[in-house]
Structures are given as structure tokens and as C-alpha cells.
Amino acid sequence: MRSLKRSAVFGICLAAALAAHAQNASSAPQTSGTISDQVQPKLTLTQLVQTVLDNNPELRSVQQSSVTAQAAVVSAGALPNPKLEWSRGDNKARLASATPGNVQTMAISVPIEMPSVRAARIEAAEAGQRASVHQIAASRNALIAQVKLKAYEVVLRQAQAQAAYDAVKLLEQAHERVRVRVSSGEAARYEIIKADAELINARQQEQSARLLAEQSQLTLNRLAAGQLPSRFDLALSLQDPVAQAQLKNINWQSHPELLQLQSEVDKAEAQKSGAKASRWPGLELRYAQTREPDIRNNTVGVSMQIPLFDQRRGPIEEAASEAERARLRMEGRRAELEQQMLQAWKVMEMAQVRIKALSEGAVREAESALRVAEAAYRYGERGILDVLDAQRVLRTVRADLLEARYQLQSARIELDFLAGRYAEPSSL
What we know:
The protein is α+β, with helices and mostly antiparallel strands. The protein is built from nine helices and six strands. The chain is elongated.
């Protein structure tokens, strides 16, 4: 009777252990299966870019600068206000012939600017307004390029996460075959140890890839001020075509950054002209009337500042230096853009060479090597280490292909950004 009870207890414990083992084994693939099973909203690139443009706080702040510049134009064109004076006193007679009584004085003065000073100030303000408009276009150009680059990074990270998930599934199948062979005595114990290590490493890489994919989406959502869904897919592909003929058409005359710098040059030149004209700032007309008990005096006068001691050398030289600095910045930025364009072209050519070499050669050879290694392992001609090495080589080559495709899209976006093609609303 006691032996029967012991057998029953042992059977219950064994069944519980097997059930726990089965549950642990089945829960492992479910963790990675969420990559392809979750249904997420899919956004087009146009929808993504428009959402970011509508909500990005930095772009909205730059857009507000145009209002400030417009107000500066109004301030520059304002006329100086006249001044009104009034005073009152008593006139006491010290002689018998004098007439005592109240004395009142009223005066009005109107400052009149030199036309050259006023015109230079207005021209500088208008140049500043043009610079603010071009600054908005340049900020829009940079933001759209950043969004598109991050969007393709999301696609890259998601592809890497999917590749890591596929690698885990493949290693799980190999692990099961190794376990069966080790259990039957057909393979050595070290093979299952090696398979366990490879599987653990693959699961860690899968988790890291998933976290990187989520992080890239959070970066995009930060650019949109949190207005994007927490999880989303993009209607993009790393294999999107690249039209090289369109990338070669560059109009430097409409580049937003160069136009902004040119407007700053115009503003500095206007300020230099204003500094020269400020040596003779203007006139002040004055009319005054004094009323005494028996006399009424009317006077008209003109006052003007004479540049005798201060001939405005300092402001003139300072404005001239700022104008030269602005001109040098514009010329330097154009030369920098040209060099960056050449560098981006080289990156694109290198990416195209890598894609062709990997897709037409390395990937096919790695797939063939894996098939040969798996067939040899099934027939007992090779060990599990050869299969795992072949799988690792294939994963590495495919990862390099993904990176090369992303590099190609990144170079295309960089070329569009350097050419200023994202500055216009039609760029969406």
C-alpha cells in the first residue's frame, strides 16, 4: 500500500515537472512572436512628415521669428514723435514802468531724420525679414531630412528585429535536433552546450534589436511632440528606388541657407550705410511762443548736431567688419555645401557597390553554405558547430546588406537636404 502511494506521488511530481518544462519551452517563442503578430497603424511618409511639421516645437518657434521681423520693419518705418512743451511763471515788476503778471511759454519741436538714415534703417529691417523667411525654409529643410532619415532608421531597426526573431526560430529548430541526437547518443554532450549558448546569445540580440526599434520610434514621436501613435509601422522599404538623375539638378540660387546668408549680407550692408549716414542724423525744427502781460514773442529755430568730435568712425568700421564677416560666411557655406555634396555622392556610390556585391554574391554563397552544412549534419558528416557557423555567417551578411541599403537611402536624403529640396511645401 505504501509503495502504491509513493508511486502515485512520484507520478504526480513527474507530471508537474513535465508540464512546467513544456510551459517554459512554449513561452520562449511567444516573447519574440509579438514582432509580427501585433497589428499596428501604418503611416505613409507624407503623413509622418506632415504630423511632425504641424507639431514640432522648434519649427513653430522659428516660424514665430517672422512675426518679430515684420514688427521690426514697422518699427523701422515709424516717424519720430513731436515734442510739446509748456511752462508758466510770474513776472514781477522791479521798475515802475514794468508790468507785472503771468508769463506762459508754449513750444513744439519736430525732429526730422535724414532720408539716407531712414532708408538704411528700413532696408536693414526688410533684409532681416527676408532672412527670417529663409530661416524658416532652412529649418523646414533640415527637419524634413531628419524625419525621413529617422523613418528609414525605424524601418532598418524593425528589419533587424525581424531578422533576429527569424534567427532565434532557426536556432530553436537546430537546438531541438541537437537535443534529440544528444539524447540518443549520436552526438557528444558539448554540442548541446554550444547550441544552448548560441540560442541564449540570439535571444539577447533579438531583445536588443526590439529595444532599438522602439527607441527609434520614440525619437520620431519626440520630433512630433508626442502626436504620433506609441507604436506604428511605416509604409516604407529600404529597397525604395533612388532616382540619381533628379539628385544632380541643383539650383544654388534658391538654396534656403544661401538665401538666408545673402539676406544677412544685405542687412549688414544696409547697417553700414546707416552708420555712414548717421554722421548727420537730422534736424530739429522748433517753434515757441511766450506770452507776457504786455508782450507776445514768437520764435522759430533749427538745431542740428555737427560731427565735429565724433565722426562715427567706430560704428562705421564695426558695420563694415560685420558685412565682410557675413559675406565670408556665405561664401564658406557654399563651398562647404559643395564638398558635402561630393562626399554624399561617394557614400551613395559605395553603398550601391556594397548592395550589388552582397545581394548578388555574398548572400547567395552564405545561403548555399548553410544548406550544405545542414545536409552534411543530417548525414553525420559534420558537427553542429559547422551549422552554427554557417548560420552566423548568413546572419552577418544579411545584416550588412540591410546596413548598405539604409546607407543608400541615407545618402539620398543627405543629397536632397544639401540641395535644399525639402524647403518647399511641394517636397512632401
